[in-house]
Every structure is written in C-alpha cells, then in structure tokens.
Amino acid sequence: MLIITRTVHIPDNEIELSAIRAQGAGGQNVNKVASAVHLRFDIAASSLPAFYKERLLSWRDQRISSEGVVVIKAQQYRTQEQNRADALERLKALILEATKVQKTRRATKPTLGSKKRRLDGKSQRGAIKAGRGKVDY
User: Fold this and answer.
1) Mean pLDDT in runs of 10 for the chain (137 residues)?
2) Among 74, 90, 129, 134, which is most exposed with the fewest C-beta within 10 angstroms?
3) Of 19, 10, 23, which Cα lies nearest the Cα of 37?
4) pTM across the whole model
5) Which domains does the chain possess?
C-alpha cells in the first residue's frame, strides 16, 4: 500500500510493477539482470478521490499518457528493490505535486515610501546627467 497522505492510500493491486533490463553501461550484469522497474498506474480506474483524479488527468506531464496512465521507469539503482522504492516514491511525488493548490495572487500597490524613494533616485540620476553637460563660463 502506497501512502500519499494520512487519508489517501493506493492499494498495491492498482499499481502494476514489472522488472525490465536497464539501459546504458554496466558491464555483463546489465545484460543478465532485470534490475530496472517499469511502473504503470491507471488514474481513472484507481481508488483516488475525485479531486486527485481530476487534477492528475488535467495536468500536462509527459509521464501521464493520453489514456490517463502514469508510466514511470526507474533504473537509477543497481538493485530491483531500490528501483522499485524509487518508482513508488516518484509516483507519490507526482500525485502530491499535481494536487498542490496554488495560492491566488492579489495585486498590491506600491507604498508611498517606495514611490518617494524611486522618484528621489530618478531626480538624483537626472542631476548627475545634467552635470555632464557643457560648462558655460
């Protein structure tokens, strides 16, 4: 069981994990051992709450296919157990990131002091530039 929050859990039967051979360098061992893990998670068929499903399906991410299936390939570690834990952790992070609610931005006006400082700086800069002109004797 993958625990997302205190109230949201994903049962193991909803997450499909399969072992595959890892890509890249690694000598003879990479050709013999299926240490990489391929994780598939169907969002629509899961027991996640409706809010989570809605946010995940509307979210634009390359790990989520057009059918609403999350596909994660973990091959960073040498052992299958570590890659399995990494894939589950990445799924959890993806779900939490997708359901994070952005704080609404409220437009603010500059303070009177900041306006005054800006205008003082502008007039000071103008005085410096005016001092560069021709000197009339």
Assistant:
1) 82 84 71 82 84 82 83 87 91 87 91 97 95 83
2) 134
3) 19
4) 0.68
5) 2-98 (3.30.160.20)
